[in-house]
């Protein structure tokens, strides 16, 4: 039996979870409850006030929206490539920083720096750097000789989305790197030593010790990064506002437009409901994995 | 143990922050918000204006709430929806239909009536019309300017063009622009282009596109604003002309869809383009970007070129009173003050913005003798404004999407415009 | 034996490693070099075409300007207080909840874990309006406290998920042997779990700190008066209607990044603590 902070109050140990999980749940329900319900209820209100009190017309409009298809696709591409590149680069850098290397603290700091810039600011700065006329990036590449004429990073229809993703990689991989680095620290060194003594190759060490040891953290990083990249707004808005055309329009910028530029609160809510449901479905496997009883 | 210290520390931090908040005394004052407060020159001017106001109305205190330009609609929307908007705030006239539609602007009719008959006669008719919702005044007009053509006389001379003969028609404009797009240092690469403009989804876009579409004799919507008018041959002509400036004649620097108003001005300042559309704010900003250019000497203004008739876009700002204001009478005094003849003239002298008051813009010698303001004021009668309906932001967003798709070569201008036409009709049909 | 080829492989892999490190470092640093360079330029030079990497007339004016002309002192104070409070509270309560989810298998556990994550799937754009209404009703509008509470609700689920991941890796035997020794659950939490998951807390603390620091939308909508402005909001203000004051924007961004870096340097010794703290005696 556990006693509550030695106050002499006896609570059965198996009920102690309330003490641990309770405060968090309380905060979320109290603070988020009202806003969540309000905004969701907007989605079944009619756009033109006066006719009926509740309607599914907003969802109907979703199906008729000529831009939504492309927006969904862009979001999927953006999230997939961002998260994948975060994981690959984050893991690679984490492993390098976990190995025997001089000046590790310095490189760790360098790898963390991009994360320190707020994503709106990063968007503004990179947009400037990408400019064909006075951008630093084209200037640098021209000077080195990588390119012969300025690249239109953000206006070339084939490049635009990838230019944005490149910035998102810059800004976002440190987070994954840090989680995986902490995860790598938790893998006991003697596992590697024993396997190496048995003659295991580097590849075998990686796939049979490192990856399984990191599995939980990879799942956590994946789930969190996916949800976050679907929410990514400031970066894209600052860089392209969804353009050229709708080539970089994602769900977050589109919802923002509907709500704050077109004042279509009801429609924006309907899009958000759909987005939330899709996200929930995608994250179900992760929730399952992370809550496995070991 | 360390963790308990850490928790104690952060509780202390929270407590300090919280107590700061409680200690702030409640004030009975007016909240005034304007994005101009984040601009150095305007900030000084507004503060001076407020000092004058405080001297005249010692019982009213005005607190100034700056807001960043890009975020102002977001902020005012959120605040208004919760009934907590500033007492008086500053918005673009094109935002008004949305604010009116949601009931975020107070009806000013009772206050205006108290001022006596003919109070509104001091203003130009178009701004007054734009402040009305269901026939009643719900906002007061502020700065009123027209878009004109700014050009670099030195670059004209270097290209063999007469700086005293700016292009009068769009066809002439194209010829000039082609001559001004050249390689000045002989290295085989273009160093300057004829024209700089906005291609991004920026509020500055319609300001710079208006002169094209309207002077060709077309418009975005039909006069009853129920259908799109983009299927007219004139609209196609105007659209195609603009797109081809970029795709066919290449008189605009690369990267149009990422260019905002800042970029156009920077290009002019750095002699990368010879002509841009601009207004009262243009010369001082260009000068600040590149003092070596000597903007006030080298630049000249001319009416926007035309195709079939003279038309240009107007820039109009407006003052809104929050319907939830606790001090409507005092708020009205403030609004009356900032739009008064004396203070409107001050705004021009300090910030180079012309006023929506006839008794300032049409009459004041400071304006009539100013090299740039005189051109702007002369174009006020030809000013046109976008359709004032609440779906306008969505309509122009759709239109700009199609324009961008055409300028980057994804679709032909005809196809892009036809799509825009269809989509806009769908929006209006909702 | 195979010493020769092992040496070859070692040199090759060491070179590859170094090349990789250098490439990544360049990728990370180039924008910062540009930011640094621009921050020392005059406003006019910042607009030069083609751009200059070495300022022709270097001036520290923008660094002075942000403090003197733009109230950065206040912004800094606000951002630091808010972000620190968010980081510490979110990590602490996240660890608490993470422990609860990790060690206890109660009914509805899976649902609650999912619930925590699900609260993050609603876009902030939609929540900010109703949230603003609540705050003004309880008198917390335009306060740092209101912002901290808002950020907490965004950070807490993520902190919980992250901490649970790290706590899961701590063998239950540690808990059990401590309980046998008469330690209470809370005691185990503070004395055994937290020290061991310290490396994981680094990421969690930094994540919450940076989220609060870098936020624009909530700070914009939930505050209005000058004494409450945060650094990120202040930087957004340098993008005006008419011009972007680039040197100040860069100076502000660089200076604004300092607290996070200082926090990281302070925390980084935790990163290298492994399972050695609180190990079970085998």
Describe this protein's structure:
The complex is a heterotrimer of chains A (294), B (430) and C (282). Chain A is mainly alpha-helical and 294 residues long. Helix content of chain A is 69%, strand content 1%. Chain A has helices at 17-42, 57-64, 68-98, 104-112, 119-129, 136-144, 160-185, 189-197, 202-231, 234-239, 251-261, 265-290; strands at residues 2-3, 10-11. The mean pLDDT of chain A is 87. Chain B is an alpha/beta fold. Chain B has 20 helices and twelve strands. The N and C termini of chain B lie far apart (63 Å). Helices cover 73% and strands 0% of the residues of chain C. In chain C, helix 1 (3-39) packs antiparallel against helix 13 (246-271) and helix 10 packs antiparallel against helix 13 (246-271). Chain C is globular, with a radius of gyration of 24 Å. The chains are: A mainly alpha (294), B alpha/beta (430), C mainly alpha (282). At the A-C interface, strand 1, helix 1, helix 3, helix 4 and helix 5 of A face helix 1, helix 4, helix 5, helix 6 and helix 7 of C.
Number of helices of chain B: 20
Structural class of chain A: mainly alpha
Q: What strand line-up does the widest sheet of chain A have?
A: 1-2
Residue windows where pLDDT falls under 50 for at least 5 positions of chain B = 23-27
Q: Could you give the count of β-strands of chain A?
A: 2
| Cα end-to-end separation of chain A | 23 Å
How many E-type strands of chain B?
A: 12
Estimated radius of gyration of chain A: 24 Å
Strand content of chain A: under 5%
- Could you tell me which chain pair has the largest interface and how many residues each side has? A-C, 105 and 105 residues
Q: How does the helix and strand content of chain B classify structurally? A: alpha/beta
The geometry of chain A reads as flat
